[in-house]
Amino acid sequence: MSAELLLNVTPSETRVAMIEDGILQEIHIERDAKRGIVGNIYKGKVSRILPGMQAAFIDIGLDKAAFLHASDIVPHTECVAENEKQQFQVRDISELVRQGQDIVVQVVKDPLGTKGARLTTDITLPSRYLVFMPGASHVGVSQRIESEKERERLKDIVSHYCDELGGFIIRTAAESADEKELSQDAAFLKRLWSKVLERRSRYKTRTKLYGEPGLSQRILRDFVGADLTKVLVDSRLEYENLKDFTSEYVPELFDKLALYEGDKPIFDMYDIENEIQRSLDRKVNLKSGGYLIIDQTEAMTTIDINTGAFVGRRNLEDTIFNTNIEATQAIARQLRLRNLGGIIIIDFIDMSSDEHRQRVLASLEMALASDRVKTNVNGFTQLGLVEMTRKRTRESIEHVLCSICPACEGRGYVKTVETVCFEILREITRVNRAYDSDKFVVYASPAVAETLQGDESHALAELEVFIGKQVRIQTEPLYVQEQFDVVMM
User: What positions does the domain S1 motif occupy (predicted)?
Assistant: First the structure.
């Protein structure tokens, strides 16, 4: 499977598209004004302790206080007393931190919606081959390195780099790396951590001590193990920056990096702009004629499968089974493309055959195998729904590109014109009883104003007779359908 990365870079926004066999699979967007903070290290202050939740709120200088759970506090941080280092099973948050205390934390989840950032005191710093763990003394090896001989070789090399500063985790990309490359990585990470420690002692609280690199560099660092054929960048300045970055940290991608100088925009090469627009739709059409309905809510994402126009050529059971199988491929792609995370409930079309259900589950798990984000499929529930989870580390594409509709305020629907007309008539009656006025003027949207003067004109006339006062209708072109004002004259 061939894969390409396309980088569209402007002064205020960076977009990265991952293409597999000519099809968009992932889209990453970072705007300078709303840049993610996962991986950043802060010197914060404990602003509030919640014993009932075994958590604390930490002020790290953002608009919302960040959240630190007791399980995310590790014993090698300065916030834990010496006796607790010996007895780490103590998990009472009140014994681990105190209000007003300074604490060094790292962001593991960006703020999502109304929730603040999620923190940990288990600081880690990643590089090309290694992940540095300050305060630790051991060496871990990625489980994806399967050769026991290679695991032992790497562990033997890296163990020499462990000292009082910390230990390391050996990443998958380190497989076959030589001692010089590993040594350079370890030295770089130690220098980086030394700078963090220096800033910690020098800076006041509520200060960022370390910031993760920009999207372009993070993507190349994270995709280094993927089978990339080329990386195209449409900005000469970013291209030069990435040449320096790849030559130092990911030399195997250096020759695959190229400057895009085509006449048309880089994202037009694979119809990416239209794909992004389609990723915001609730409905996803399947080639067979069936379709998915995807609804993203605060608590979970639901996916409903329908046969639609697909009637099949044999019998109903085969039609349902084939639609569900096709849907598994589409679901896996949409989860990656939209970056949907958290709890996901899938309502496959009901199947009477246990064999068909197991084959659909196997097809879903196989389709999810190429997802770089961790997923877990729990199987069918008693209600015939499939429960699964996908790790959530950043905002979905919908949350990045969209905001709540001002007309419906997130409900997904608006009141009918007739409903708004009747609300206006009731409001006139209420105001007339409460206040003394000579006449009323109603300001309403074009559709509502037209209906009050047309189909509902008889109801308006009856109201005027009932209250004994004139009601004038004024069209306000900028009003949304539910918006209106009743003014006394």
Answer: 39-128
**DSSP structural state of residue 305:** E
> What pLDDT was estimated at residue 128?
79
Q: 103: burial class by Cβ within 10 Å (0-12, 13-18, 19+)?
A: buried
d(CA 73, CA 135): 13
> Which of 345, 334, 331 minimizes the C-alpha distance to 297?
345
The structural domains of the chain, ordered by start, are 3-35+212-273 (3.30.420.60), 41-210 (2.40.50.140), 281-401 (3.40.630), 417-488 (3.40.1260.20)
CB 347 within 8 A of CB 305: yes
Task: Tell me the two tokens of residue 72.
Answer: 């995310």
Please answer whether residues 292 and 286 qualify as being in contact, where contact means their C-beta atoms are separated by less than 8 angstroms: yes
Low-confidence ranges of the chain (pLDDT < 70): 1, 75-91, 224-226, 309-314, 393
Among residues 482, 320, 472, 310, the alpha carbon closest in space to that of 406 is found at: 482
| Res 174: pLDDT | 87
The Cα 404–Cα 411 span in angstroms is 9
What's residue 177's pLDDT? 85
- Are the beta carbons of 346 and 332 closer than 8 angstroms? no
pLDDT attached to residue 269: 85
Report the distance separating Cα 347 and Cα 383, nearest Å.
Answer: 9
Decide if 221 contacts 199 (C-beta within 8 A).
no
Burial of residue 68 (CB within 10 Å: 0-12, 13-18, 19+) is buried
Q: Is 208 left (phi over 0), alpha (psi -120 to 50) or beta?
A: beta
* In 129-288, beta strands by DSSP E: 130-134, 139-141, 166-170, 207-210, 228-233, 257-259, 283-285
Question: What does the block give as tokens for 99?
Answer: 């209000």
What's residue 346's pLDDT? 97
Query: What is the DSSP secondary structure assignment for residue 76, as one 8-state letter?
Result: T
Q: Please enumerate in sequence order all residues whose Cβ is within 8 A of that of 375, keeping only pairs 6 or more positions apart, or say none.
A: 335, 368, 388, 389, 390, 391
Instruction: Classify 411 as helix, strand or coil.
Output: coil
User: Under 8 Å CB-to-CB from 236, ≥6 apart: which residues?
Assistant: 259
What pLDDT does 450 receive?
96
CA distance 231 to 239: 10
Residue 49's DSSP bridge partners are 56
